[in-house]
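Folds abound. Consider this:
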Amino acid sequence: MLKFLLLGAILAQFASASSEQIDVVYGTDNRKDYYEASAPQKLLSKSVAGLVPINRFAKGRKTNFFDIATTRTLEDSQNVCPSEKFSEQITAPFCTGFLVAPDVMVTAGHCYLQNSTAEERCKNSVWVFDYAQSSRSSNPTKEIPLQNIYTCEKVLAARYAGVNDYAIIKLSRKVTGRTPLRFRSNGKVSSSASVMVIGHPSGLPMKVSDRAKITFNTNTETFSTNLDTFHGNSGSPVFDARTGMVEGILTQGKTDYIPSDLKDPNSCMVVNTCDNNAKKCQTPHEGGSVAYGEVVYRITNISRYLDSLLR
């Protein structure tokens, strides 16, 4: 019933308007909350949203406001030790996406194609902007304005095969008060560039993770970084930290959490850590696509199609 209540409210108000595993900390944990971010980072984050199952919502106390229902902290939902960073915060999004046109989002393909069809995911999930800590004590699960919640009208394109991992989503209405992000259309990011990511690691309220470097930049379709990202960051925009331009979509990475007591698999979980070169991790060696760290799908692979949407 809540699904139809929320969907009906969204459509009525705007009727006239047209897990992959990605996770680990490299060196120092650089994740920070929205309220701790710089002004330019906050501006970019306004165009980043979390993908949340529509059945997680309950009607709020005020008209056209909704709450996240069945709230669970990171500690409760993923058995993360209470001593771990952000363990007390409420998890909600299972993927991240970003705005590239007034009514078009980009995310990882597996966010729509893994354990679901694209049509089912489109129907049963919504994009939520500003799921973030505006202060240390704020509660982003309460009184979410309807204007921050957007339904999917259509999956324009989605692929999850080999290194190709992207989805392009048309929203049911244009997003207001937010600027589509700039993205690279040709060439590739400099190997010496500093990069950052904005998204929802482990389903947490929005985090910015910066001060990262590129660890491998040879492959045509992807590059690798030492960004501190986790599942839930799937689909996050990866930026050149100096220009603010989107260079790619976060798609894959090393293991995120490991048992605090390696002899007891049921012990609470702690963050897996590696050095800044994606080596010397607490887990056994992970080779293949994640050998060099977190994998980013170059947005230039789909930029021609995205450019056509902007004409």
In short: DSSP finds six helices and 20 strands in the chain. Residues 1-5, 10-22 have pLDDT under 50 and may be disordered. Residues 2-13 form the longest helix (12 residues).
